[in-house]
Amino acid sequence: MNGELLLFWVFGLATLIGALFVVAARSPMSSAMSLVATFFFLAGIYVLLWAHAIAVLQVLVYAGAIMVLFLFVIMLLSLAEAEVSAPVLRFSWLVGGASTLGLLAVLGLAISRLSAQPAALGPAQQASFGSLGTLGQIVYTTYLLPFEAVSLLLLVAILGAVVVAKARI
Amino acid sequence: MVPINNYLFLAALLFCVGMFGVMVRRNALVVFMCVELMLNAANLTFLAFARQRGDSVGHVSAFFVIAVAAAEAAIGLAIMIAVFRSRGTLNIEEIKTMKH
């Protein structure tokens, strides 16, 4: 077993366990903390995929900004023990479990028919693939219009968040 | 080298865990966190296929997904604060004004 595969299993299992804790945890606070851990391990997976810039963005934006927002709201609403423990077997559990297993089976079947191998990168590509420079070059040339649209979307989201959350303007 | 299939399986599992959480959990905040998990699974798929093709455009897609997720989190949490202020709860079984 080579080192890359070992790292994949370590990060992959940690990501999955973190995700299961997000769903299974009783209090929203433990859910949020395991979500932070999941994002960190997922950033490790991204690095294994040579997406260094996206891995850094994942830690900065997801594990940093978005989760701080979540934690603020959880503490603001003091929901620490708001959720009562659910009964063991309910209709939504049956429907949710069955549809999830069905989707997983279909996805697993589709993926197992695919035999995808990573592309062999040349020496020039090895230096540039997944770096911030390459990302910036594409974003600022080919995808300039979507980039500006996203910046407008973020501006609207800031204004909208203030308008919606404020009691009286 | 790790086959791309492994990454795709991991993304599928992550998406299914998130979907199960959305369907089962009652707390709106936890449902929202599970939506974030599903977004991350989609991101992982983008990056895996970018690695398969040796093409950086998948990274740009993941970048845009992260930006839109940030906007979505801001708006969604603002809506949750507004709902909590008017209803005093975030249990999605008790928030059913728009249910027919």
State the CATH architecture of chain B.
Answer: Orthogonal Bundle
Largest interface: A-B, 86 and 71 residues
User: What's the Cα radius of gyration of chain B?
Assistant: 17 Å
The 3D shape of chain B can be described as elongated
Question: What are the SSEs and their pairings?
Answer:
The complex is a heterodimer of chains A (169) and B (100).
Chain A: H1 3-24, H2 28-48, H3 52-77, H4 91-113, H5 123-128, H6 132-141, H7 144-165
Chain B: H1 4-24, H2 28-53, H3 57-87
Helix pairs in contact in B: 1-2, 2-3
Concise structural overview:
Chain A contains 7 helices and no strands. Chain A has 169 residues and is an all-alpha fold.
Structural commentary:
- The complex is a heterodimer of chains A (169) and B (100).
- By secondary structure, chain A is mainly alpha-helical.
- Chain A has 7 helices and no strands.
- In chain A, helix 2 (28-48) runs antiparallel to helix 3 (52-77).
- The mean pLDDT of chain A is 88.
- Chain B is mainly α and 100 residues long.
- In chain B, 78% of the residues lie in helices and 0% in strands.
- In chain B, helix 1 (4-24) runs antiparallel to helix 2 (28-53) and helix 2 runs antiparallel to helix 3.
- The longest helix of chain B is centred in the last third of the chain and has 31 residues, at 57-87.
- Chain B is elongated, with a radius of gyration of 17 Å.
- Chain B starts with a helix and ends in a 13-residue tail after the last helix.
- The relative contact order of chain B is 0.13.
- Classes of the chains: A mainly alpha (169), B mainly alpha (100).
- The interface between A and B is large, with 86 and 71 residues.
